[in-house]
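Q: For a teaching handout, I want to show students what a protein-ligand complex looks like in token form. Below are the inputs, and the small molecule is adenosine-5'-triphosphate. Please produce the holo structure.
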Amino acid sequence: MLLLKLAFRNIFRQRRRSLLTAISMAGGYILCTFSFSLSEGSYNNAISFFTLDHTGHVQIHKEDYLQRPKIHKTIDDPEQLSEILDSREDIAAHTLRVFAPGIAYSDTDNSPAQIIGVDLERERTTSTLEQKVSSGSYIGSDLDSDGYYSAMIGAGLANSLNIGLGDELILISQGADGSVANDIYIVNGIIGNRDSPDRNTVFLPLVAAQEFLSMYGRVHEVSILLNDEGDSRSEASLLQEELQDLSVAPWQVVESTFYQSMQTDKQGNNFSMGVIVFLVFVGVLNTVLMSVLERTREFGVLKAIGSRPTKIALMITLETGLLASLSVLMGLLISLPLIGWFTAVGFELAQPMDVGGIVMSHMTGEMSFYVFAIPLALIVLFALLISIPTGIRAARISPTEAMRST
Amino acid sequence: MTAVISTNEVCRYFGDEEETMVKAVDRVSIEIERGEFTAIVGPSGSGKTTLLHLIGGLDNPTSGSVELSGTNIAEMSGAILSDFRRDHIGFIFQSYNLIPVFSAEENIEYIMLLQGVEASERKRRVAEMLEQVGLEGLGSRRPNKLSGGQQQRVAIARAMVSHPEIILADEPTANLDSKTGIALLDLMKELNEKHNMTFVFSTHDDKIMTRAGRLIHMMDGEIESDEVK
Ligand SMILES: Nc1ncnc2c1ncn2[C@@H]1O[C@H](COP(=O)(O)OP(=O)(O)OP(=O)(O)O)[C@@H](O)[C@H]1O
Ligand SMILES: [Mg+2]
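A: Here is the structure, written as tokens, with adenosine-5'-triphosphate included.
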């Protein structure tokens, strides 16, 4: 107890120096938590943006469809697969899709288009397609009274074909059997705006697309939403074991370009965190060394009157640990509300920022145990690391030498 | 009866080379009995401090041995030596050397804390010591709020509170004016008689040395004379 009191008073003995060290540790801590929170936050935003937009957390395809999409690489029994997926606890929702490139015609114009057939009911709970309808409505999968299916088209396509709600859309593509596919659809919904990634996409009801492409009952892609994004990899490998003849991939594989650039970016962040911690480290080292050097005589006396060497070393460690803990606590008091605000409210960027290929104009942070705990552990650990050799040095001071130095 | 302090041909040389070697203490053999009040005197550089440090186990002899109550302290090191000093030897230094961040009371209490003495007992003994050295009511002051004489009284209390057999004091009065110094020495003498503790102190001061029961004169590391009054 007296040792703790001694450590405490020794910290307050050099108020200015201790305060400066404390500020550098607290400041370093705040910077670390903030940059950690920012990086986690913006990546988590980006991840949830595209996983919810269309990717999902896990995808299933036939063979290497992901790398080399070919119309004949199909999942042949999607209904049975759906049953399996519906029965799994970790899976929140899933949807079925078919894809084909095509050309879209109106009376006056034509334009290349990406044709996607989706299970409209399942898509609702799996992706944000429904929220992206900017005019008209989210279509149904029934034929209208004239025998036409409905379609939703990207705003860019609507513009270049010069068509709108209620107009006819003609699609031409190649069917799975090699035949020429062509049919007429009625535009009942417009998706997004002219800058959206889906600006040249045509969304059809799954049955309509399967009919159009002569691939009855088959699909190209199953996109799965999990209850917890963090389970993506493990769930993917579990599913892969069960579905031997299909390819299961977590979003990290599906969006590998994004994932790679995120990892590189995070390494950059870790590096800058390392630099901050190093600067703090140098400051603490300086303080601890100074305070030991100028107290050589005192340590000599403490040893002379019977303090064990280990006690002296412990005293230095205790002092440093106490100062580091107090500083980090001070930092925590500031960073907690700061990051709370940053997570809840965030701020608008003057200039939109590219986060691994996704452009974001609003930044929010991430508030998690790790955001606070990792920088805390790093700083306290480094401070203690410094104190150990310094403490040993103080413990080795010879009382006679110490007494001679004035 | 074995002597409390017994040195046998103890030497402490500094430096390795023949020409530059300093024989700070050279073949000193002395026996000091329990309860003696001994002064080590001699000119500056004669080896007084070095001898006291050898006796106190702060320094290791180049050759020869130091036995305290029959125990050869050269055979001890690290924590064992620390504990031995804590339990058997009290130190008083020329420049007081109190812990500046501790109050007078806490300075006195510290050694008992290292010894694991119970809190109530510590409190009792601190109060008793403060009274014996005449510092009642000043216990809560930090060293920088005490005069030199008062600080040295705290140092005496600190050295004596754990009831060591031996108190070693290196020029305890050198930083004090002569009146305060004499008063302090009288206090030491009084405590020496009362508790039958063995005191060994060094000094330059003629007025101080006359109060010693035994005078050991040193010169160039050797004992020049040893007189018991
Ligand atoms: N660590 C050391 N290294 C080298 N020489 C030393 C060391 N310690 C002491 N000496 C030398 O040993 C001799 C005795 O020194 P010591 O301090 O014991 O003398 P002293 O009698 O206490 O002197 P003073 O009255 O000035 O305190 C001196 O010549 C001193 O220079
Ligand atoms: Mg001396």
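A: Two things your students might notice: The pocket of magnesium ion (ligand 2) is lined by residues B 48-49, 170 (CB under 6 Å). Chain A touches chain B through 24 residues (CB under 8 Å).
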